Amino acid sequence: MKGHTITRALSALGLATVAVAVSLAQPTQLAFWNFNESNPLDSTAMLAADGGVFAAQAQIAINLANIVYNNSGTGFRGSPLDPNNPTHPTTPNWGLQTTGYPAQDQRPGEAGIVVSVPTTGYQNIVVKFDVRWSNTASKFLAVEYTTDGGANWTRARVLEARRGDRWHGDTDANGGYGALVELDLSGDSAVNDNAQFAFRVVTIFDPNTGRYTAANFPNNPDATYSQNGTLRYDLIEILGEEASSGPEGDVNGDGCVDDADLLAVLFAFGNTGSNLPEDVTRDGTVDDADLLVVLFNFGAGC
Fold first, then answer.
1. Residues 172, 134, 202, 44: what is their CA dihedral angle, to the nearest 10 degrees?
2. Which pLDDT score is estimated for 16?
3. Alpha-carbon gap, residue 139 to 164, rounded angstroms
4. Which of 48, 189, 267, 268 has its CA 20 to 30 A from that of 72?
5. Beta bridge partners of 67
6. What is the structure's pLDDT at 25?
7. How many helices (H) and strands (E) does the chain have?
8. Domains in the chain: how many in total?
């Protein structure tokens, strides 16, 4: 029976030519907020992470602005991309509302939410979230990250509202981009395995005018920026891949990817479960994906 399993495993390697360019590591959720609390007026519950391996350590703060919880006795509606959205409010779908931003011409690049999540033991970090601009909010936002607890910030992306009162995740036809904001930080090794990682979303000046521009301009040519404009957030998620102390594919942990690692995966082929050493991709099954990782890294560290 084991010989038959190995034969099937070797046959599966025919997929290698189409899988060589694909990252086989499975991302892990480090922290996640959907803000779908039973009581959206409970600030403690709203700011607590709803999932992720670092949920207990993850934090949301705000600088030079305010978080608002009470929307006439209820919460503020969340992203259209939230699975709970179609039946709102029967099934809660709330977002995190912010307002009270700097006056016109004041404090660009400083005001906004700060999300702190350690990446200890993880690499290839990806940040995702949705944001909604009100009509008079700042049209331009900067997404920045820090690897030293906020002493220095690196600007990774600038967001521009297509119109006001719209989520980034709204459809293109409805004035959005049809997807979450996604920031791939895998190219910066300083983000990996870092207890001081954080990212922030801050209001910035319109690069064309050097001042704040209203989100609904030019859809409304008379739209003007206001401190009372709002930015609302939902589906904030930080993902990472588990970092290995040795080369990828080193199943037995001896620092060398060799025939011993290949044989270990072959003899465990088809096994399922959690924390299997031969399950290199950590997807719960020892399969062709694990064999491919070992083969593509064969000889590493030897």
1. -110
2. 42
3. 8
4. 48
5. 98
6. 60
7. 5, 13
8. 2
CA atoms within 13 A on the CB side of 267: 8
DSSP state string for 74-124: B-EE--TTSTTGGGTTTS--EEEEEE-PPPTTS-TTT-EEEEE---TTEEE
Whether the Cβ atoms of residue 269 and residue 9 lie closer than 8 Å to each other = yes
34 shares its domain with 146: yes
Angle between helices 288-296 and 259-267 (to 10 degrees): 180
Considering 221, 242, 263, which residue would you say is the last residue of a domain? Answer: 242
As a 3-state breakdown, the chain gives helix, strand, coil percent values, each rounded to 5, of: 15, 30, 55
In this predicted structure, what is the pLDDT of residue 164? 97
* Residue labelled with tokens 């980034």: 168
Q: Give the end of a domain, one of 200, 220, 242.
A: 242
> Using CA of residue 72, residue 73, residue 79, residue 81, what is the dihedral sign?
negative
Q: For residues 63 and 112, is the Cβ–Cβ distance under 8 A?
A: yes
CA–CA separation, 95 and 75 (whole Å): 8
Is residue 252 within a helix (H) or strand (E), and if so which, with residue range? none
Residue 99 one-letter amino acid: T
pLDDT at position 245 is: 66
Q: Which stretches of the chain score pLDDT less than 50?
A: 1-6, 12, 15-23
What domain range includes position 255? 2-25+248-296
Residue 58 tokens, joined: 């993850």
